[in-house]
Every structure is written in structure tokens, then in C-alpha cells.
Amino acid sequence: MEFKSLISSGKLSKVIPVSKINEIANQIEKFLLDQQESQRISQKYYLVKDKLDRITYISNIEEIINISNLNNYFDGMLSEIVRYPDKFFLATSEMHIRWPYCEEIPPHQDNFYHCFQDINSFKILIPISKYELPNAFLNYAKIEVFQKTLNHTASSTPAFSSYIPKDIISNLNLKWINYKFSLGDILWHSINSIHYAKQNLSKNKSVFLVFRFDHVDSKIDENSLKEYNKVFEKHKTLTNLSL
Ligand SMILES: [Fe+2]
Question: Can you give the residue range of the structural domain that contains 60?
Fold first, then answer.
């Protein structure tokens, strides 16, 4: 097993200086005010807006924040999470913004979306805004890293194409963890972690960056990919998406 812990999620404290987080927060605020720039980014990457025309998700943030600033800190984080950090590389960098009263993030496992044969990939979530209330960020099921990828069905939530239906979730009798954090802490989860968030009921938006790390030997499972593509087509119909 690649992971150091048996539980599929965790928190690492004080891994990024707060000044660095504030620097990133400023870059994001500047970006959010620049309509021309968001228009440009939306032509290159998958950018989701809510009904009030506010950005909620961007599939690639490399042109918005200076990721190389974070590289120094990733090495330390990786060595806390996996046994052989050198075998992992940064695959994707995304941003989520959860505005007050935003849509729920339905319960899901990332690997249903990514379709890897083995559960080696993981995600590092870097909060850019303060912890206020549990549903501003994510709730994680207390499950082992060996948890298999469950069946998902198409969702109508933009940026979250599929979810685990209620009956499957309730049969699992899950216990949930909500990690309280300070700025500079990070959360991580393996790609088979089950997580969700209800509406953000805090007064402020919550902003977090998500970095996926893949193992050099990771391979796609073709059957899972076929299944995912079917669900994604349905999701496109449900959300009027034209990708
Ligand atoms: Fe997820």
C-alpha cells in the first residue's frame, strides 16, 4: 500500500506559511474582479458559474495563481501522506469557490470520475479562506483506503457530474469527519474517499484549491471509463452542458 495511514483522509497542520495563503487569496480576489481574464480562462479551461454569474469552479488554476510558490511545501506534505513521495507527480490543480447558500456537493468518490485501476492517487486540499462552519468545506467518511469505488449516478450539480445514491450511502452506516483547520493547514484524501458538503451556511465564501497527485504507474481502467462516460453524458443533459 502506498499510503502511510489506513484512513482515507487526513489533515496536516501548519504546512504553508499564512503569509503565502494570504498572497494566494489576494491573487484570487484580483482574478475574480477581472472579467476579461475570467472570460479568457473560460475559453481554455472548464469554468463553472452559478446562477448569479459567480465563478464556482475552475479546472486549471496555473494561470491564476503562482503554483511554483507551493512546490517547496508539496514535498513535505507528500512525505507525510505516502511512503514513496518520489513516485508521485502533480496531475491537476483546480479551484472551488463555495458562495453562501451555494449548491451541495453530493457524496462521491473522485475515482469514479478518474477511473484509475489502483487507488494510489490522492488530493491535497488547500483552504484559502478561514474555517467557519462544517459545510463550507468538505465532510469525509471515516473509511479505509481499501474502500472500493461504489456505483454512482448522474447528478445535476455543475462540476460534480456523479454521486453515490442515498440508498447506497445509508446502507454503509458511515461515520463522518469534519476537519477543523487553521489557515496554513491542509486536508488530503485518497481518490476513494467518500466526501460531500451541504450548502455553505456561513456568511462568507469558502475558497479552496485542490491538487491531484498521481502515481507514476497509475493506469486507467477502460471499463470504468466507459461507465463514467455514460454517466457524464447523462450529467450533460441534466445540466445543459455543451462540452
Ligand atoms: Fe471530490
Answer: 9-101+116-141+176-219
> 105: CA distance to ligand 1 center in Å?
8
**Predicted TM-score of the model (pTM):** 0.94
Residues 184, 20: Cα–Cα separation, whole Å: 8
pLDDT band of residue 1 (cuts 50, 70, 90) is confident
Q: Is residue 158 part of a domain?
A: no
Quote the CA–CA distance of 216 and 6 in Å, as a whole number: 21
Q: Is the predicted pLDDT of residue 243 greater than 80, yes or no? A: no
What's the gap in Å between 180 CA and the centre of ligand 1? 18
Q: Compute the Cα dihedral for 135, 137, 143, 148 and give only its sign.
A: positive
Q: Do 114 and 189 touch, CB atoms closer than 8 A?
A: no
User: Of 45, 102, 97, 77, nearest to 208 (Cα)?
Assistant: 97
Distance from the alpha carbon of residue 94 to the mean position of ligand 1, in angstroms:
11
Within-domain flag for 233: no
- For residue 93, give the CATH number of its domain: 2.60.120.620
For the chain, report the end-to-end CA distance as a whole number of angstroms: 36
* Cα-to-centroid distance, 149 and ligand 1 (Å): 13
242 DSSP assignment: -
pLDDT in tens, 112-122: 999 999 989 99
